[in-house]
Amino acid sequence: MTHAADLAERARIPTVLDQTALAGARAYAQAYLNLAEASGQADAALDELDELINDVREAYPGLARVLFSPIIKPATKERLICHIIEGRGSDLLCRFIKLLNRRGRLNLLREIAHEARRLWNAKQRRYVVQIVTAHPLDDDQRQWIEEVIRSKVAVGSPLFQYHTDPSLIGGLVVSFGDHRFDLSIRSKLARIQTRLLDQRNHEIQNRRDHFSYSA
């Protein structure tokens, strides 16, 4: 590997974390959530952290590579952080991002945000309901689905997230917690195909048994 390629690899945004790093992300997430709760603005603080990730990491990947690179000095990163966040974000967010930078943990930012949101949802007895459909739903369809789910699951507060997957053909797939309900046309067709194949294999085996008996 050339020197330039080695630098590029070291600067690459990490996507796979080991268990030690994940444990660190959970610890920082809990610390951030504790501070946010103490300020009485937990939801706003979590939203702000998510917005920062979307703005910096998704919209400006070049800037993200600088912030998350292990070869860029923390002092240089802090100047960028001050320029980006100060005046736009809360004092809590600014101090927290600076802390992560000084401890070399900016690469855990996405995992920290995810874990902080999970911890807060659990504390508030909220659960995420993933709804996947072949085509986007209108407001009336979403309202009907949400009312049905609320009537079936009376515990906690559902947070609905919608996604589309054209391969479903029609229908929908609903997932929350350890539960998954596949009501898609794709799934129905797969079950029909399985039954037809089983029936065909059964008929073939019957013919073989008949010929073996005749012989």
What can you tell me about this protein's structure?
This protein has 215 residues and is α+β, with helices and mostly antiparallel strands. The protein has two domains: 16-123, Peroxidase, domain 1 (Orthogonal Bundle); 127-205. It is built from nine helices and four strands; from the N terminus they run H-H-H-H-H-H-H-E-H-E-E-E-H. It has helices at residues 3-11, 19-38, 42-58, 61-68, 74-85, 91-102, 109-123, 139-152, 185-214, and strands at 126-133, 157-164, 172-176, 179-182. It has a four-stranded mixed beta sheet. Helix 2 (19-38) crosses helix 3 (42-58), helix 3 runs antiparallel to helix 7 and helix 5 (74-85) runs antiparallel to helix 6 (91-102). It is elongated. The protein starts with a helix and ends with a helix. 14% of the residues are buried. Mean pLDDT is 84; it is low at 1-16. Its main location: membrane. GO terms for molecular function: proton-transporting ATP synthase activity, rotational mechanism. Pfam families: OSCP. One of its GO terms (cellular component) is plasma membrane.
